[in-house]
Structures are given as C-alpha cells and as structure tokens.
C-alpha cells in the first residue's frame, strides 16, 4: 500500500502532510510532519500543486487560506472539537455580550484551532491568529494595542498566557461581570477535551513516585497543571525539549498519546518517558485517519473523482488570510 501511495503522490504532484498526533503508520510515510505553525507555513510554501493533509479541519483550512491556488484534501473529515466550540455566530454573540458590559473595543486573538469564518471575524476587527508555538510573541504584539484582549477559543491557553505576563484573565460566561471588567485578557470558554485529562494530581503522583522526574506539557493544559510543569510548549517544542534531555533523565509528558509514545525508546531497557494520565489521552479525530484513507483519497484524485477537498468562500478566505499572514509576519 505504501508503494502505491508514493507512486500516486509522484504522479499527482501531492505533498503528504501529517500532524504529530497522527498514527505511526501515517507519520512514517508523510513528506512533512510538524506542529500547526510549521505545517501551515511549510505546506503553503511547497511547490506541489496538491496537498493531502492528515490532521484536523482547521489545519487543512490554514493551508488553503494561505495558498488558495493549491488543492487541499483531507483523507478523513476530522474536526478539532475545540475549534468546533466557536463559530461566527458565537463570536458575534460574545462581542455583543462584551458591549453589554460596556466593553466597546477589544483586540481579538484567535488560536489557530478555529475555523476560517472565525478567523475572518477576527481579521475584520484587525486581530491576529496565534499557535501554541508563537503565542507568547503574538501576545506581546496584542498587548501593545492597549486594549482588553479577547482570546478564543481556548480558555486554558488564554489563562496561561495571562499568568505568564502577570496579567488578569477572566472567562466569558463563567466569571462575573466584575471579573470580566477587571481582566486584561478575556477568554472564550472553549477547551481541549484531550488536554483536560491531565490533572495537578497526576503531576503530584509522578513527582512523588520519581522525585527527579521532569514534567513537560502543552499549553492547552489547565493553569493548575501548567503551573506545576518544568516545561510548557507546542508539540514540536516538547519534542525538542525531550530529545535534548540526558537519555537517562525521566520525563512525563502531558499531550496526545501518539506523540508521547514515539518520543523515546526505553533507556538501558528502562522505560523513562511517561504519559501524564492513567486515561490514554488520544485525540479521537486525529486517530481516525488510516493509510487506507490516504490511498483512497489519492485513487479518487487519480480518477478525477476527488472528494474531501477543502473549499472556502472567497470573501471568508481573503479576510482569514490577513489574520494568518499577520501571525506569520510576527513569528
Ligand atoms: P500544536 O500547534 O502544538 O501542534 O498543537 C495543535 C493541537 O491541536 C494541540 O492539541
Ligand atoms: Fe483539537 Fe485537542 Fe485534538 Fe488538538 S488534541 S486537535 S486541540 S481536540
């Protein structure tokens, strides 16, 4: 099957792209693997006419937005559940709610885990996109505008950025009007169900069991977990951090299972890389894509019967591109 995939890729000028959370069988054959920032940048700049994106919807959309002439296909229609927690209507309703509270102007920052319509709404208000890899830099830029920041959809990333900057945060719909009015960063109430699995008790458990252990987590984890960690970073930053450790150093990692499982082989026969949860932290939709799906989408393209192609309304894509390009320029 792998040989047939490679043959069709060559014939059809296809770049095969995979996020780090994909199954091993996909990661093994991909031309490009990375975090959401690297994948958006590198796939949109590639020479290939076609991109087959193994990941979730917003990632494929980002390539289409940045490189509208390319055709982008997803082997499976897979969605990020966090990105699905906000759409353009919820965005408008949030802005209305803030106005009701007397907050007339905000600076919106959307995490890349959001759909094209939401990115377009953010661009209409001159806001910007960020990823977990560049969030700190983007936040520095956002803060220069001297307005309250509306951060969406991930409340945890918003809260974590606020505490890193010594700022106050509040969650719209969860916190009181007084707290919202007092906050520097107002967060939308979205979250990642996978990263919510990691708890402060999990960190305490590993620290008690192995006093020398290091803890590395993704910033989609709750503030309680992030505050207890030794390292916080995007998927590629976590990989780099763990790979630079002494091979004997124990580490426990709070992010998706497939990535953690591939990180390090046992050292001297001893397992020293752990998953920060007793529940397997699998992203269900990331795990949907199989080699067979990749082959199917390529066979269909070869027969001129392409399916699962990312198509966006032009006016939405043009606006969303402004917010994404601003991010690339800043990072
Ligand atoms: P990265 O940008 O760090 O790859 O994260 C994407 C994601 O969805 C994490 O859950
Ligand atoms: Fe979305 Fe969470 Fe899956 Fe990442 S791990 S793609 S944030 S649902």
Could you characterize the architecture of this molecule?
With 331 residues, this protein is an alpha/beta fold. The protein has 3 domains: 1-79 and 286-312, NadA-like (Rossmann fold, 3-Layer(aba) Sandwich), CATH 3.40.50.10800; 83-187, Rossmann fold (3-Layer(aba) Sandwich), CATH 3.40.50; 200-282, NadA-like (Rossmann fold), CATH 3.40.50. It is 44% helix and 15% strand. The strands form 3 sheets. A 5-stranded parallel sheet has the order 6-5-7-9-8, sandwiched between helices. Strands 2-1-3-4 form a 4-stranded parallel sheet, sandwiched between helices. A 4-stranded parallel sheet has the order 11-10-12-13, with helices on both faces. It is flat and about 60 Å long. Iron/sulfur cluster (SF4) binds next to loops. InterPro entries: NadA, NadA_sf. Keywords: 4Fe-4S, Iron, Iron-sulfur, Metal-binding, Pyridine nucleotide biosynthesis, Transferase. Its cofactor is [4Fe-4S] cluster. GO terms for molecular function: 4 iron, 4 sulfur cluster binding; metal ion binding; quinolinate synthetase A activity. Pathway: Cofactor biosynthesis; NAD(+) biosynthesis; quinolinate from iminoaspartate: step 1/1.
Q: What is the name of the CATH class of the largest domain?
A: Alpha Beta
Report low-confidence residues grouped into runs of 5 or more: none
CATH architecture of the largest domain: 3-Layer(aba) Sandwich
Any idea what the radius of gyration is? Answer: 20 Å
CATH 4th-level superfamily of the largest domain: NadA-like
Q: Per CATH, what is the topology of the largest domain?
A: Rossmann fold
How many domain units? 3
Mean pLDDT across residues: 97
- Name every ligand kind in the structure: 1,3-dihydroxyacetonephosphate, iron/sulfur cluster
For the biggest β-sheet, the strand order reads 6-5-7-9-8
Strands, count: 13
Which structural category fits the helices and strands? alpha/beta
| Secondary-structure element string | HEHEHEHEHEHEHEHEHEHEHEHEHEHH
Number of helices: 15
Largest sheet: 5 strands, parallel
The CA-CA distance between the termini, in Å, is 38 Å
Oligomer: single chain
Keywords: 4Fe-4S, Iron, Iron-sulfur, Metal-binding, Pyridine nucleotide biosynthesis, Transferase
EC number: 2.5.1.72
GO molecular function: 4 iron, 4 sulfur cluster binding; metal ion binding; quinolinate synthetase A activity
Pathway: Cofactor biosynthesis; NAD(+) biosynthesis; quinolinate from iminoaspartate: step 1/1
């Amino acid at each position: 099957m792998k040989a047939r995939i490679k043959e069709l890729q060559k014939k059809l000028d296809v770049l095969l792209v995979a996020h780090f959370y994909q199954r091993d069988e996909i990661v093994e054959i991909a031309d490009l693997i990375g975090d959401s920032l690297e994948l958006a940048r590198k796939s949109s700049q590639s020479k290939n006419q076609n991109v087959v994106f193994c990941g979730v919807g917003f990632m494929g959309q980002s390539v289409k937005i940045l490189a509208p002439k390319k055709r982008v296909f997803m082997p499976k229609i897979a969605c990020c559940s966090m990105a699905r927690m906000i759409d353009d209507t919820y965005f408008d309703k949030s802005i209305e709610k803030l106005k009701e509270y007397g907050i007339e102007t905000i600076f919106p920052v959307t995490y890349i885990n959001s759909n094209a319509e939401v990115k377009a709404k953010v661009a209409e208000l001159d806001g910007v996109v960020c990823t977990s890899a560049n969030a700190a830099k983007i936040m520095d830029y956002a803060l220069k505008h001297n307005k309250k920041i509306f951060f969406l959809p991930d409340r945890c990333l918003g809260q974590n950025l606020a505490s890193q900057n010594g700022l106050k945060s509040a969650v719209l719909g969860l916190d009181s009007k007084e707290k919202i009015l007092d906050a520097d960063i107002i967060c939308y109430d979205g979250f990642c169900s996978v990263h919510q699995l990691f708890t402060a008790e999990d960190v305490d458990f590993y620290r008690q069991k192995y006093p020398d252990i290091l803890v590395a987590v993704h910033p989609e984890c709750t503030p309680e977990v992030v505050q207890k960690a030794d390292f916080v970073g995007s998927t590629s930053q976590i990989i780099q951090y763990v790979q630079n450790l002494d091979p004997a150093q124990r580490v426990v990692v709070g992010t998706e299972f497939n990535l953690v499982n591939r990180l390090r082989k046992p050292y001297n026969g001893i397992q020293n890389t752990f998953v920060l949860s007793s529940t397997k932290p699998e992203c269900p939709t990331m795990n949907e894509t199989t080699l067979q799906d990749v082959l199917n989408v390529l066979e269909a393209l070869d027969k001129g019967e392409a399916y699962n192609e990312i198509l966006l309304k032009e006016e939405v894509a043009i606006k969303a591109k402004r917010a994404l390009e601003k991010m690339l320029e800043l990072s």
